[in-house]
Design goal:
eight-stranded mixed beta sheet; 12 helices; 29 strands; globular
Length: about 575
């Protein structure tokens, strides 16, 4: 049931009380925001992205004009410590050097999944396979002429699965830098285990993707509409805005320092901006490079086995423990290689009979009905901040809590904000989209909020849960922008946990997605993997919990999708609720 205006409907006593509580809460939020706005007037932040010839308009949209750089998209770090952390992260996620596409372009000299093959290696020490063993697969890459590749850099993912058992686990892929790769899997269930290896991108395609983000960080086109009275104008906007003779409006956020710029309209003020829009894409490929991104040819194509593609797994050996995450690391000690995984140690979990089983940390419980979910959330306030992959979670709760009411603020479907309220059980769940860059068709300026600012406005406490997911819109931009954004969010999380240590903070990681040739040029899984590594590195060792969406989508049999299928989302929600209700 949706409530457009509480007072327009006949409600019971409990619901009326809930409306009163919400009304008071809104007044508090308005007062708090007013205080924050006053603080903004006294807050000064150095510009965080350096642009050429930025003119400060005579309005409140811009308080400082960034200095002139040599590059139109150069980021300035918050501090020397942040700069050093950024350097270390960039070193840790560095991809192997990849060869440039042949010149003139010849597809037949690039990686070909059809000619390439994988082989299951015999068990070390010989004998049968048992639960707890490590299965190693050797992958050999060849070009379209059948010649072996001599260098690394191909983007490859792998999983082990058993469809009848609804079982699956992600593999760890290691690049040996010579055209060969290893994929290692933990054997975690009894019965058949089938190997699946996928070439996401050839090394030559990775070269192109890397160049696009470096040379064309503004290839996603954004615009804003400015309006005053009967006059309206539309100008281009971006986090990286190229120099023209047209002055720019500086919309850098005063508290977080997050950058955003628009070309100033000719007749209107920077304060007359009313919306944010994605206006398309302008991808600049060189001659014939589009051939590196062909579905069913070299984009997310299975690599076949040169022999058997499956093994039979027996029960654990007597006196042997089942799986140990450390066993994965022992396979690669002393070898020249680059780990193509997320950079974390060990596995998060695996599927068995369609249920995600954790391999360390919190035990995952099943919340299979509305009663179990509402009982877990009783007395809780859950704030969700992020992209549409987190909006999926809000929609799951909205559908799973029939006694809760959705407060309809006539918000845009993609961005929110949204709220559901269960007065009887005192449950409040909210969702708000993160700040730009946002590749949505239309967002009102009033709904552009940065996560760090939202977190700073929370009181926190034992009954407060903060959930964050921010990655999907950052793929086409320099990785430094994403590092800065997460550093800003992390500082806000630290401040929250300092004032309210019992607050639960949960972060949903990135996931694989379905890719068309055009989508892969801006939102490739290769880009996503880099973002995922950065997120894990920046929050490693901090008091936050992760939901490993990367492994959960890779290990599952459902097709990859930016918005994973309901069975996957259900397992993600079970993990979140298990963090909230540990008993």
């Amino acid at each position: 049931m949706k409530l457009n205006v509480c007072t327009r409907q006949k409600v019971g006593k409990n619901l009326l009380q809930g409306c009163i509580v919400l009304f008071l809460a809104v007044l508090v939020l308005i007062f708090r925001q007013h205080k924050m706005d006053l603080l903004e007037l006294n807050y000064k932040e150095n510009s965080t992205i350096v642009h050429k010839k930025v003119t400060s308009p005579p309005s409140s949209a811009s308080h400082t004009a960034p200095p002139v750089p040599d590059n139109f998209c150069t980021f300035k770090r918050f501090s020397s410590a942040d700069a050093e952390e950024e350097r270390l992260i960039l070193d840790s996620i560095a991809w192997p050097e990849t060869p440039p596409p042949p010149a003139p372009f010849l597809l037949n000299q690039t990686s070909d999944p059809t000619h390439s093959k994988f082989t299951i290696l015999p068990r070390r020490g010989g004998g049968d396979w048992h639960i707890g063993d490590q299965l190693e697969v050797m992958i050999k890459m060849y070009d379209f002429q059948g010649n072996p590749k001599k260098s690394g850099g191909d983007a490859i993912v792998a999983r082990l699965h058993n469809r009848p058992l609804d079982a699956g686990v992600a593999g760890r892929v290691v690049d040996h830098l010579n055209g060969s790769y290893s994929a290692v899997f933990s054997l975690l269930w009894e019965g058949s285990a089938q190997v699946e290896v996928t070439l996401v991108h050839s090394s030559e395609a990775v070269t192109v993707l890397h160049r696009l983000n470096r040379e064309h960080p503004d290839r996603v086109l954004f615009k804003s509409l400015f309006r005053s009275g009967s006059i309206s104008e539309t100008t281009s906007c971006n986090v990286c805005l190229r120099q023209t003779n047209q002055p720019q409006c500086n919309y850098t956020d005063l508290r977080t320092g997050e950058p955003w710029f628009c070309y100033k309209p000719k007749k209107l003020s920077c304060d007359d901006r009313i919306n944010h829009m994605r206006a398309g894409f302008n991808v600049r490929l060189k001659d014939k490079e589009e051939k590196l991104f062909q579905s069913k040819v070299n984009l997310k194509v299975f690599i076949q086995a040169s022999g058997p593609a499956n093994v039979t797994v027996l029960p654990p050996r007597k006196g042997k423990n089942d799986f140990n995450n450390q066993k994965l690391d022992q396979y690669f000690l002393g070898q020249p290689e680059v780990d193509q995984g997320s950079g974390k140690s060990g596995l998060s979990g695996y599927y068995y009979q369609g249920v995600w089983r954790s391999l360390g940390g919190t035990k995952v419980h099943q919340f299979n009905n509305s009663s179990a979910i509402s009982q877990c959330l009783k007395g809780k306030v859950v704030h969700m901040y992020g992209d549409s992959t987190l909006r999926q979670w809000f929609e799951y709760f909205d559908a799973s809590l029939p006694d809760a009411n959705e407060i309809n603020w006539n918000s845009p479907k993609q961005t929110g904000p949204y709220m559901i309220w269960d007065n009887a059980k005192n449950i409040l769940v909210t969702y708000r989209v993160h700040g730009p860059p946002l590749s949505f068709i239309y967002v009102p300026i009033s709904e552009l909020h940065y996560i760090a600012n939202e977190i700073d406005g929370l009181v926190g406490g034992t009954n407060t849960v903060v959930v964050i997911s921010i990655w999907a819109h950052f793929s086409p931009f320099p990785i430094e922008l994403y590092i800065r954004r997460l550093q800003s969010i992390r500082r806000a999380v630290i401040r929250l946990l300092n004032r309210a240590p019992d607050t639960l903070v949960v972060i949903r990681t990135a996931n694989l997605r379905g890719l068309t040739p055009s989508e892969s040029l801006n939102y490739s899984d290769w880009y996503t993997l880099q973002l995922d590594k950065v997120l894990r590195a920046l929050f490693k060792g901090f008091n936050v919990r992760l939901v490993d969406a990367w492994e959960m989508t890779l290990a599952h049999h459902l097709p990859h999708n930016i918005h994973p299928g309901r069975p996957i989302v259900k397992n993600m929600i079970d993990i979140l609720l298990s963090y909230i209700c540990t008993k």
